[in-house]
Design a protein that fits this description.
heterodimer, A: mainly alpha, two-stranded antiparallel ribbon, 5 helices, 69% helix, 3% strand, flat, disordered C terminus, B: mainly alpha, MetI-like fold, 8 helices
Chain lengths: 131, 178
């Protein structure tokens, strides 16, 4: 009986070639949990934003309430003082915070890149001491 | 670090009456009302954003510094170069790709900054901290003008893309070995 199962096993293996096949719907089942999230919360919103940008829609009116208005939205944006105010604030925010973050980060990085009192226990400085 | 943790910490630090920041500033006789003042709300948010980003930057810089070309420093030492000259001629150029990476990611992140603003000021006082992402959020989810908000999003995307490309352009051919 034991010999029979041993003999049967290789036959099955060569016949159906079990193991991981590189393609097929089973693979999609494995990534389905993550793919579902990506499609629902990234891909669909990403595409719908491009479409909705050319429409007038207030959400409450439902999907039937979507009316295409061409480039009206973009014309309105160009004339919207609130938009330009927001752009100015954002540019100020970026122009001040980004360089300062980089400069302070560089200063801190250089300050840390040397033998410090506690370094025999951490990484590079200990190896540079021994070399 | 989580924006909520950063926000709550700085909200306490910048409390106009009991906060540490104003206790110290009291020595100089100034007491900004930070988030209640339309002049100081945006600077306060910028301070928070900087504080939240510096740690990450220094970590990336530290790892880049440990990759810096040793033989160049040695040559500079032999030539008797000053510390500033070594920084300007060796350190800064060899860090340029790192700097550009940090600049690009920070510009993208800061242009979309939303968490801190939603948590701390909600765009206010008035519209003093209504940056583009918060304006888009207001338009879409408070005034329910989804089409208009989507158009703002699209314009913002193009704007950030242009900013990123400009940053990228600025460094071309200036790196030490590129």
């Amino acid at each position: 009986m034991a010999t029979a199962t041993v003999a049967a096993a290789p036959a099955v293996r060569t016949g159906k070639q079990p193991g991981i096949r590189p393609s097929g719907w089973v693979g999609f089942l494995f990534i389905a949990p993550n793919l579902l999230g990506v499609v629902a919360f990234t891909l669909i919103p990403l595409i719908s934003v491009v479409v909705l940008a050319f429409t007038d829609w207030n959400l409450v009116s439902g999907l039937g309430g979507i009316t295409f208005t061409g480039v009206d939205n973009f014309v309105a944006i160009a004339r919207d003082p609130g938009f330009w105010h927001a752009i100015a604030l954002t540019l100020a925010y970026v122009a001040v915070s980004v360089p300062l973050t980089v400069i302070l980060g560089l200063g801190l990085g250089i300050a840390l890149n040397r033998p410090l009192p506690a370094v025999p226990y951490c990484g590079r400085s200990s190896s540079s001491r021994t070399s | 670090m989580n924006v909520v943790a950063i926000g709550m910490t700085w909200l306490m630090l910048m409390n106009p009456k009991a906060g540490l920041v104003n206790q110290v500033l009291d020595v100089f006789g100034i007491q900004p009302a930070w988030f209640a003042s339309s002049h100081w709300a945006l600077p306060a948010l910028i301070v928070m954003a900087i504080w939240g980003g510096v740690g990450y930057c220094s970590l990336i810089y530290l790892s880049a510094l440990q990759d810096a070309p040793r033989q160049l420093y040695e040559a500079a030492d032999i030539d008797g170069a000053s510390a500033w000259a070594k920084f300007r001629v060796i350190t800064w150029p060899s860090l340029l790709p790192t700097t550009i990476f940090l600049m690009v990611t920070l510009i993208i992140g800061a242009s979309q900054g939303f968490g801190l603003i939603a948590l701390i000021t909600a765009g206010g006082p008035g519209d003093a901290t209504t940056t583009i992402s918060y304006y888009m959020y207001q338009t879409g989810f408070q005034f329910y003008r989804f089409g208009y908000a989507s158009a703002i999003g699209l314009v913002t995307f193009v704007g950030v893309l242009v900013l990123t490309l400009l940053t990228w352009r600025a460094q071309r051919g200036r790196a030490l070995n590129g």
